[in-house]
Every structure is written in C-alpha cells, then in structure tokens.
C-alpha cells in the first residue's frame, strides 16, 4: 500500500513526526519536492533531529530512502545530515538520489542575495528559487552530472559565463571557477556517487511489487507554486498533483492520502494570513507551541484554524483522511475559534481566493467552540480525549469534509492517537 503525507497549510504542520512514525512500517520512503528550505523535527529513540533533506526512512534499517527528481539538493547539507544520522544509528542508511534531481550550487545562494528576492518574499535564502529557475531555463546542474566530471565542468563553465555577464560587479560571482566548483562538488558527493541512479524505475518496481511506500511531502499546499498564495509561495509543487511528475509515474496508485494540519494555523514569512492573531493570543500560541522555524529559527505567525483554507487544501489534494497535530497546545484555552467563511467586499464567501491581494482583504467569519481546560498530553486513544476536544475535532471533520485519522498530542512518537476509520 502507498501513502502520501501532504501538508495542508503553510508548512510546519508536523509532517516530520508523523512521517517518521509511519516510516517504521515502510519499505521505501520517497521525499518528492523542495530542498533544504523544508525542516522536519524528528525524535528518534529519544534524540531530536532537525532534518532538511533526508527522508524519514533513513532512521530505519532496511528501508530505502529516495530523494526524487522534484527535489533540489544541497550536497553539503545532505552530507552533514547523513553523517549525523549514521553516527546516531551506528550504520549508514540506504539512500537513492534521482539522477535528474537538480543541485543547489554556491552561486544559487549568492543570486538570492543579489536579487533581493529572499527579503521580499520571506524565503529561507537557501538558494531554492534560483535553482528551480535554472531548471526551468535548462541551465541547471543535475545529480547525474556528477558521474560525468568532464560534462559537468563544461556545463558549469557555460553557466558561469552567463553569470559573469549578468553580474559584472559582483566580486563573489566573478571569483567562481568551474574547476573549483567541480572539485568541491565531487568531494562533497564522494560518499553518494554510487547512490545516484534511476529513481523512477526503483519506485515503480516497489509499487508494482506491493511494497509499503511512503511519499513524504515538504512545505504545505498553501505554498504550492501554482495553487498557493502566489507570489508568497515556494518554488515547487507541494500538492499531490506534483507527486506524479516528481517521481516520473503519471498516475501513481496512492489510495491513502493523509493530509496534515495543525489544530490552529501558522505561517512563516510574508503573505496574507486571514486568521492571524497579532496580539497576546497569538504570542501565547507561539510560546506554547514552540512556533519557531526549524530551518531559520524565525518566529512563526500564529492564528486560529482556517477552515476555508483547509477545505480547499483537502479538495486540491484528494485527501482521504486528516492527521491533526498539536491539539495539546490548545488545552488551556477557554474558547477556540475556527474560521468557517470569509467576508469579502460585503459578501460572505466560502471559497479560498486564488489572488493573494484578494485573500489579504478577506475577514474571517468565526465559529466559537468551548475549550476543554484539561491536558490531553496523556491521551493515547480517542476515548481518552475530553468531550469538548472531541467536539472540536468533529467540527474540523465537518468543515474539511474528511475524517481525522490521527491526532498528535505531543512531540514524542508515542504521543499520537490513531483511529480505525
């Protein structure tokens, strides 16, 4: 059986914990989009990791972890993470790097600073957008190029010629040489060279043979480059629609599409956020939930759950069930609100606007529900939850249009409720 884990908000939904939990049962775990701009918090055997590139499968012996072609890969970060995980496990995990996945080179990070796009859109400044831009312009460098150093050097020389022409006064750009870049990238990639290959065929074989395959998404639906709050989005497709293209399988048979959403809403960086709480309530959610970015450490903007956005994300991904995270963060609140519609230009609307400017002008229409006032941290079965928490979950189900399958009440793997649906 195949499962896709999909973020339904602006990222940071808690996908890392749940993917790590589900990966225990997987033969293969495939990360299918994004790069080191995504951060997953994972607690493995009592040790906390903040991962950015490695799939959750690396923590389990016998599980094959795949970095698919929809990703962009920074070899320095990948090597650092693999060394940390290997030291933790006492062995080197099995990974497969898609030969057509693109590489983040030092000049991509330079370009993000020179162009100033990072500060305007609130990006992580990891060189993600320039790398995807090079991919679209057909001047990118791919993992498979590392297996042909001569071709790699020629491709890099061509790219540097264009960069020097475009940035004649940028000393850091002018100082780059193809030979040094080849040398540095091959040195970083040395442990990985034998792991670069045809990921599409391996994934297709695993699916055909009935292996348990877990597809791990990064960021969230509302950051999708096509269907998110453009231009305040990431540079890859974060939805289920992007999965097939990333792995090279036109219509992958993934019957279980698990959408991850927090019991409230957060966002990092710029962009519209209708349910944002900017005062004491928002600060309290941030501190109680530890809402600081795994990748950047930036404080996350916090607010009430946006049911309109959630319903949109569920529909867009064809989600079959939900995993609700951080329910315990709401334990001490007397009242909890959920946005069930918007007010826009004097009208009440139930649709999610596709233009960021229109969304920014929307006012949320809230429905208030009673809080439960007791800790849910010790709950391990749905029946253990207080009645008001059950009512809140059921209201989310009705707004989203799909059932809640999993509920997280703490960062530890065992602090998870799983329901039979």
Verbal overview:
The chain is an alpha/beta fold. It has two domains: 1-254, Adenylosuccinate Synthetase, subunit A, domain 1 (Adenylosuccinate Synthetase, Chain A, domain 1, 3-Layer(aba) Sandwich); 261-418, Adenylosuccinate Synthetase, Chain A, domain 3 (Alpha-Beta Complex). The protein contains 14 helices and 20 strands. It has helices at 15-23, 75-89, 106-115, 117-121, 128-136, 149-166, 171-174, 178-189, 199-208, 240-247, 280-289, 307-317, 356-360, 387-400, and strands at 2-7, 28-31, 40-44, 47-51, 64-67, 72-73, 94-98, 102-103, 196-197, 213-216, 256-262, 265-267, 301-303, 305-306, 321-325, 335-344, 347-349, 363-370, 404-408, 416-418. The chain has a ten-stranded mixed sheet with strand order 9-7-5-2-10-1-11-15-19-20, with helices on both faces. Strands 14, 16, 17 and 18 form a four-stranded mixed sheet that branches. A two-stranded antiparallel sheet has the order 3-4. β19 and β20 form a beta hairpin. The longest helix is centred in the middle third of the chain and has 18 residues, at 149-166. It is globular, with a radius of gyration of 22 Å. 48% of the residues are buried.
